[in-house]
Amino acid sequence: MAEETRSKILAVDDEPMNVELLDAHLSLDYDVISACSGEEALEVVKAEKPDLILLDIMMPGMDGYEVSKRLKSDPATRFIPIIMVTALSDVGDRIKGSDSGSDEFLTKPVNKEELVSRVKSLLRTKGMHDNLLSERDTLEIQNCVRGILTSMIPVLLQPLPPEQKKIMIYQMTGMVETTISGMCPLCKKITDLASVGVICASVMNQLGGSFSIEESAGGNACVVKGTVCPWGADEARRNPILCNLTRGIFSRIAARGSGAPEVTVIATIGNRDDACVFKIG
């Protein structure tokens, strides 16, 4: 069973002891990183993409209000929850914090139970929001790709010369891969063969298939297996040429990784096998 990914929390405070206290309260359940100024916080957010920010207000240079305003005005960071953690306690300070875009306000010294409760609540809300965005992106990918298939597959199924069909498969593969890579965040994170396999399986699953990593051979190769064809089981069995589309997409995704690994077809539903099996590497 895959290990659950721990949420990453950024603690921003110019006093190291305050950061150490927040770390002590949260490090058992979360990965806590830190920044000691507003300017550094913006750089860390850009590099580390935390799931939540604990932000001091009174800091030399850029204060917490300005940090919050900048993060909430940036589309790339506006949905990261921000909890202001400060010695300020006046109503006016809270209003100013809300106006800057912060989501919660805690007064120092921080109560551990209250801190943990607020963090859990905001991370749960962010998780729901992230899931909705992921589902939206998946639907957009499916709709775009299905539009390509709807317009081109009927022509492919006509009695055309093999060379013409190869050209059309190449064109379809290019359009599908371009659509996916432009909309799927995973496609920009290829670092090794295992990642290539995970992304290939994810892409097919987003299109309606059921693919998974079957095995890995010491980092030298990985095997992707699909038991449900995204192009439709009956259609794929009648038209094995559709399997070339899957292989073409895998090859183009693999080409984004280091070494441009080869994609080998071991079995396909289109050839009356029980599943589609592709070796990458």
Structure in words:
This protein is of the alpha/beta class and 281 residues long. The protein folds into 2 domains: 8-110, Response regulator (Rossmann fold), CATH 3.40.50; 152-280, Alpha-Beta Plaits, CATH 3.30.70. It has 9 helices and 9 strands. The chain has helices at 16-26, 38-48, 64-73, 91-99, 112-156, 162-183, 193-206, 233-238, 241-254, and strands spanning 8-12, 31-35, 52-55, 82-86, 104-107, 210-216, 222-228, 263-267, 276-280. A 5-stranded parallel β-sheet has the order 2-1-3-4-5, with helices on both faces. The protein has a 4-stranded antiparallel β-sheet with strand order 6-7-9-8, covered by helices on one side. A hairpin with a 5-residue loop joins β6 (210-216) and β7 (222-228). The chain is elongated. It starts with 7 loop residues before the first strand and ends with a strand.
Label this structure with key terms:
281 residues, Rossmann fold, elongated, Alpha-Beta Plaits, 9 helices, five-stranded parallel beta sheet, four-stranded antiparallel beta sheet
Widest sheet: strand ordering:
2-1-3-4-5
Number of helices: 9
| Percent in helix | 40-55%
| C-alpha termini separation | 25 Å
CATH fold topology of the largest domain: Alpha-Beta Plaits
Give the C-alpha Rg. 24 Å
Shape: elongated
How many E-type strands? 9
The parts where pLDDT drops under 50 for at least 5 residues are none
Main sheet specs = 5 strands, parallel
Helix and strand run: EHEHEHEHEHHHEEHHEE
Number of domains: 2
The CATH architecture of the largest domain comes to: 2-Layer Sandwich
- CATH secondary-structure class of the largest domain: Alpha Beta
Amount of beta strand:
15-25%
For the residues shown, what is the average pLDDT? 79
Content-based structural category: alpha/beta
